[in-house]
Write a structure and sequence with these properties.
Strand order of the largest sheet: 2-1-4-7
Number of strands: 8
Order of helices and strands: HEEEEEEEE
Structural class: alpha+beta
Shape: globular
Helix content: 10-25%
Radius of gyration: 18 Å
Length: 102
C-alpha cells in the first residue's frame, strides 16, 4: 500500500520539476553593432532595463516582449517581439527597457 501512494507522489514531483525547467524567451542585448562587445541576457518575467543598445537577438519561446524607449517600461510600448518566433537586429536600437509577458 505504501508503494502505491509513494509512486504518484514521486511522479507529481518529477512533473513539477520538469515544468519548472521549461525555457523562457530570451533577449540578448549587445554593446556594439553586429552583435559585438559586451552582452547581457534578459529572460526574467516582467520589467528589465536594457543596458546595451548596439544590437540584439530575441529567441521567442512562449513569452512575448514589449519594448519601450524609456527605462522602467514607462510610456507607450514601442514594439512587441513575438512569443513564437526569433528576431535580431545588427544595428543600434532605441529600446531602454523590456517587459517579458509570462
Amino acid at each position: 500500500m505504501k508503494r502505491v501512494t509513494l509512486i504518484p507522489a514521486l511522479t507529481a514531483g518529477i512533473i513539477a520539476l520538469t515544468a519548472g525547467a521549461a525555457h523562457a524567451s530570451q533577449y540578448i542585448a549587445y554593446e556594439g553593432p553586429g552583435f559585438t562587445g559586451r552582452s547581457v541576457l534578459i529572460d526574467a518575467c516582467g520589467m528589465s532595463n536594457i543596458p546595451f543598445n548596439g544590437s540584439y537577438k530575441w529567441y521567442g519561446d512562449g513569452q512575448s516582449g514589449r519594448m519601450y524607449n524609456q527605462p522602467n517600461a514607462e510610456g507607450l510600448m514601442h514594439f512587441k517581439l513575438p512569443a513564437d518566433n526569433s528576431a535580431e537586429q545588427r544595428t543600434p536600437v532605441g529600446w531602454k527597457s523590456i517587459f517579458i509577458e509570462c
